[in-house]
């Protein structure tokens, strides 16, 4: 029987599943234990697994990530929480120069099976220092896998796959999706990293989206039907590894592609995908690829200004219809 749970509940469920399965998995971060997480994504884990496996830390991203790195090097599978993805900037040397490169530099003698969870994205009015969408930062660093689920089931399946993976994974949980609900089947759930999902079929255009932009793209696709445009929606789910086969197949099927990106336009993940499609499927395209992105600005905390900066369903619809004229 299916269970209806929220995105934030799915985080705790995924962690509990993997911690029950493997005693080397443990959780570390600010307020993840007694408080149940600042976004209430880890309640009950302290009571279920105890203080040795669910550990609160000082307010120090460097300490959290450094401890996780050392633990992974010595046989554990740590899950480290960085409260806001913006704060990855304070420990980026450890992430980009140490964690991402250790397995390569030791010729595989030292593996780093760790997951860094972090709350990503805008939509909750936290301002410029707490609202960024930074998955393109992680995507640019060789040695890191990058995951960003859009729904509760994917949270569980992709978290399980990330924890079991031998490489370091940056797992972006979108703040704007925490209250969203979805059905979860009974039993253990495990997905595959690097596998996109075609969440809506379409014959006229293809929308490529990630995380919170997936429900917005689905909303836009439904409304585009009223204008006689059938839009397919692809949930990328992972940026590294990237499912280029699904992307190219969907791009070739419609010939018209739009990326829907919450990250700022300059050097966003969509630019990389555009280059791949142009190199591999240029002659299947009927029109230039269009990128729909957040403005390249620090995000405002004002409700209307933040909404104006981010891709919306209305902006997706307007962009698609304008390009089809």
Keywords for this entry:
alpha/beta, 12 helices, 325 residues, 7-stranded mixed sheet, single chain, 5-stranded mixed sheet
Strand order of the largest sheet: 3-2-4-5-7-6-12
Order of helices and strands: EHEHEHEHHEHEHEEEEHEEHEHEHH
Regions with little confidence, pLDDT below 50 for 5+ residues: none
- Rounded average pLDDT: 97
Backbone structural class: alpha/beta
CATH structural architecture of the largest domain: 3-Layer(aba) Sandwich
Q: Please give the CATH class of the largest domain.
A: Alpha Beta
> What do we call the CATH topology of the largest domain?
Rossmann fold
Q: Give a count of the beta strands, DSSP E runs of length 2 or more.
A: 14
The percent range for strand residues is: 15-25%
Oligomer: single chain
C-alpha geometry = globular
Write up this protein.
- With 325 residues, the protein is of the alpha/beta class.
- The chain folds into two domains: 3-184, Thiamin diphosphate (ThDP)-binding fold, Pyr/PP domains (Rossmann fold, 3-Layer(aba) Sandwich), CATH 3.40.50; 197-324, Rossmann fold (3-Layer(aba) Sandwich), CATH 3.40.50.
- It contains twelve helices and 14 strands.
- The strands form three sheets. A seven-stranded mixed sheet has the order 3-2-4-5-7-6-12, with helices on both faces. Strands 9-11-10-13-14 form a five-stranded mixed sheet, sandwiched between helices.
- α1 runs parallel beside α7 (152-164) and α3 (61-73) packs parallel to α4 (92-99).
């Amino acid at each position: 029987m299916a269970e209806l749970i929220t995105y934030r509940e799915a985080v705790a469920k995924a962690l509990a599943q993997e911690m029950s399965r493997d005693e080397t998995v443990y959780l570390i971060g600010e307020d993840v234990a007694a408080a149940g997480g600042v976004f209430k994504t880890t309640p009950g884990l302290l009571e279920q697994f105890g203080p040795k496996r669910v550990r609160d830390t000082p307010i120090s991203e460097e300490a959290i990530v450094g401890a996780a790195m050392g633990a992974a090097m010595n046989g554990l599978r740590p899950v480290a929480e960085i409260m806001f993805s913006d704060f990855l900037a304070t420990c980026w040397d450890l992430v980009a120069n140490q964690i991402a490169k250790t397995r390569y530099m030791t010729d595989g003698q030292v593996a780093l099976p760790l997951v860094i969870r972090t709350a990503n994205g805008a939509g909750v009015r936290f301002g410029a220092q707490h609202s960024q969408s930074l998955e393109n930062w992680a995507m640019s660093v060789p040695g890191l896998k990058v995951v960003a689920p859009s729904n509760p089931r994917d949270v569980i399946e992709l978290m399980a796959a990330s924890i079991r993976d031998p490489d370091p994974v940056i797992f972006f949980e979108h703040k704007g999706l925490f209250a969203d609900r979805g059905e979860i089947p009974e039993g253990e759930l495990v997905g595959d990293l690097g596998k996109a999902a075609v969440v809506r079929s379409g014959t006229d255009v293809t929308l490529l989206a990630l995380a919170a932009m997936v429900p917005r793209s689905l909303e836009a696709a439904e409304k585009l039907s009223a204008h006689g445009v059938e839009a397919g929606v692809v949930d990328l789910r992972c940026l590294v590894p990237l499912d280029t086969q699904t992307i190219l197949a969907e791009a070739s099927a419609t010939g018209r592609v739009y990326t829907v990106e919450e990250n700022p336009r300059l050097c966003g993940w969509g630019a990389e995908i555009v280059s791949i499609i142009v190199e591999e499927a240029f002659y299947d395209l009927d029109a230039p690829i269009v990128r729909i992105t957040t403005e390249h600005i620090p995000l405002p905390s004002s409700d209307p200004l933040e909404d104006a900066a981010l891709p919306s369903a209305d902006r997706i619809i307007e962009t698609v219809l304008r390009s089809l004229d």
